[in-house]
Design brief:
- The protein has 403 residues and is of the alpha/beta class.
- Helix content is 49%, strand content 21%.
- The protein has 16 helices and 16 strands.
- The strands form three sheets. Strands 8, 9, 10, 11, 12, 13, 14, 15 and 16 form a nine-stranded mixed beta sheet that branches. A five-stranded mixed beta sheet has the order 2-3-1-6-7.
- Strand 4 and strand 5 form a beta hairpin.
- The chain is globular and about 70 Å long.
- Bound molecules: ligand C2E and calcium ion (2 copies).
- The site of one calcium ion has 4 residues, from loops.
C-alpha cells in the first residue's frame, strides 16, 4: 500500500517546516493506529508512506484497511494553532508472496498515480490495464502541453436563470478541450492532469481572459447584457500558484468588464486545502467588487464552518442534492434547511444540475434565487449563448422556455 499526502508542500510553505514535521508525526501515529499485527508501516521519504500489509487475507481486506487509513488521515489536525485538513491518496498492489518485491512496489505506485488522477482522496487497486492507462495518460499529458498554443482549449457557457423574471441573468464559463482525435473533452478528463502538471495555471488564465472578453462583447452587442453575470471556476492549484486577484484586476481593466458582474466559484475543498491563501485572495477579490460563490455546497464536511470563516456572497447547492429531489423527502428537508440558512445569512442561493420541471418548481418554492441545469440549457459556445438570451433582453420576451 503506497500512501501519498496531497499538497504537503503547501503546509511546509505556509506554516513552516516545523509544522510540516509535526504533520508527518501525526500522520505516522494515525497510520500505526490503523495497523494490525504483522503489518509494517514505513516512511519512504518526503510525504510518502508505505505499508506492507501482511495481515491482509484478500484484496478486499486490503481495500478496507486503506479506506480506514484515508478516513483517519482526513480528520482535522491542529498545527501551531491552525486547524488543517490534509487529503491523501492510496495505491494498492496485491501479491501472493512470489512476485519480485520491486515489481509489487512499482505496481502499487502506478495504482497510487491512478488514485491521484481519479481525484484526490481515493484508493486504487492495481490491475494490469493500469499500465496501458498510465501510458495513455502520459500521452494526454504531452498533448495537453501544446493544446493552448494550438487553440484547442475553448470555453462553453451554461446559462444561469432567474425564474422570477424568467430571464437569463448570466452564465458559468466551463472549459473544454477540442481534442484533435477524441473530440470535445469535458474538464473531468483533463483538469486533474492540468492540476498535476501545473498547466492549470495557464489554462485557467486563458479561460478567465476568454470569458471576460466574451462578457465584454456581450455587454456591447446587446443592451441589458451590461449587468449579466459571468461565473469563473478557480481550482486549488490556481489559487496557490497564480496571483488570481492580480490577474483578474488586470483583465477587468483591460476588458472594461464591471467587477460586479464577475462571480468567482470556489469549492469547499479548495478553501479547506488552501485556507490561508484563500482568505487573502477572497478578501482582495471582494474588495474589488467581485462576488464569491461557494461551489458544490454541502459536499464538504465542514460547510457551516466555511460560511462562518469566509466572507462569501452566494452558495451553489451541489447537484447531488438536486438529483431525485422530487422523490426524496429527506433531501428536500436538507435543501430547505440549506436555503433557509443561506437566506438568514443574506446570501444568494443558486441551484445547479436542475434537470426536471418538478425540481425547478420545488426549489423555487423553497426560496432558491437562481437556477442552472440541463432543463434550461446545456453549456454552449459563446455564439449560441448570445442567441439563447437575446430575445428577452431586446424585446422583453421570455428568455427561457421551460419544456
Ligand atoms: P462545476 O463547477 O460543478 O460545473 C458544473 C458542471 O455540471 C458542468 O460540468 C456542467 O456541464 C454540469 N451540469 C450542469 N447542469 C447539469 C445538469 O442539469 N445535469 C448534469 N448531469 N450535469 C450538469 P463540466 O463542464 O463537465 O465541468 C465539470 C467541472 O470541471 C466543473 O464542475 C468545475 O469544477 C470544473 N471546471 C470547469 N471549467 C473549469 C475551469 O475553467 N477552471 C477550473 N479550475 N475548473 C473548471
Ligand atoms: Ca462551478
Ligand atoms: Ca458545482
Amino acid at each position: 500500500m503506497m500512501i501519498d499526502l496531497d499538497d504537503f508542500k503547501n503546509i511546509n510553505d505556509s506554516l513552516g517546516h516545523p509544522a510540516g514535521d509535526e504533520l508527518l508525526r501525526v500522520v505516522a501515529d494515525r497510520l500505526v493506529e490503523c495497523m494490525r499485527e504483522g503489518d509494517t508501516p514505513v516512511r519512504l521519504g518526503g510525504d510518502e508512506f508505505a505499508v506492507i500489509l501482511e495481515s491482509a487475507r484478500s484484496a478486499e481486506d486490503a481495500d478496507a484497511v486503506a479506506k480506514r487509513v484515508l478516513e483517519q488521515l482526513s480528520q482535522p489536525m491542529t498545527l501551531r494553532g491552525t486547524e488543517i485538513v490534509i487529503g491523501s491518496s492510496i495505491g494498492i498492489a496485491v501479491s501472493d508472496g512470489t512476485a519480485d518485491p520491486a515489481d509489487v512496489e512499482r505496481d502499487a505506485d502506478i495504482a497510487l498515480y491512478d488514485a491521484k488522477f481519479a481525484g484526490k482522496g481515493q484508493v486504487a487497486m492495481f490491475h494490469t490495464d493500469m499500465h496501458d492507462s498510465a501510458v495513455q495518460r502520459l500521452s494526454l499529458t504531452n498533448q495537453l502541453r501544446g493544446a493552448l498554443d494550438r487553440g484547442e482549449i475553448t470555453v462553453s457557457y451554461q446559462p444561469i436563470v432567474d425564474l422570477g423574471s424568467m430571464a437569463v441573468v448570466g452564465a458559468e464559463a466551463l472549459v473544454r478541450w477540442q481534442h484533435p482525435t477524441r473530440g470535445e473533452l469535458a474538464p473531468g478528463t483533463f483538469i486533474g492532469l492540468a492540476e498535476s502538471t501545473g498547466s492549470i495555471v495557464e489554462i485557467g488564465r486563458f479561460v478567465m481572459e476568454r470569458a471576460l472578453r466574451d462578457a465584454a462583447s456581450w455587454a456591447l452587442s446587446c443592451p441589458g447584457h451590461e449587468r449579466s453575470r459571468i461565473a469563473l471556476n478557480i481550482s486549488g492549484r490556481q489559487l496557490q500558484s497564480d496571483d488570481v486577484a492580480a490577474v483578474l484586476r488586470d483583465l477587468l481593466a483591460e476588458t472594461g468588464v464591471d467587477p460586479q458582474r464577475v462571480v468567482v466559484e470556489v469549492t469547499e475543498s479548495v478553501l479547506m486545502q488552501n485556507a490561508e491563501t484563500a482568505h487573502q485572495v477572497i478578501g482582495e477579490l471582494r474588495n474589488r467588487g467581485i462576488r464569491i460563490s461557494l461551489d458544490d455546497f454541502g459536499t464538504g464536511f465542514s460547510s457551516l464552518g466555511y460560511l462562518n470563516r469566509f466572507s462569501i456572497d452566494e452558495i451553489k447547492i451541489d447537484r447531488s442534492f438536486v438529483v431525485n429531489l422530487e422523490n426524496d423527502a429527506k433531501k428536500r428537508a436538507l435543501v430547505q434547511a440549506i436555503i433557509t440558512l443561506g437566506k438568514a445569512l443574506g446570501l444568494k442561493v443558486v441551484a445547479e444540475g436542475v434537470e426536471t420541471q418538478t425540481q425547478a418548481d420545488l426549489l423555487e418554492q423553497m426560496g432558491c434565487d437562481l437556477f442552472q441545469g440541463f432543463l434550461f440549457a446545456r453549456p454552449m459556445p459563446a455564439e449560441q449563448f448570445i442567441a439563447f438570451r437575446l430575445p428577452a433582453i431586446n424585446c422583453g420576451e421570455t428568455a427561457v422556455r421551460i419544456q
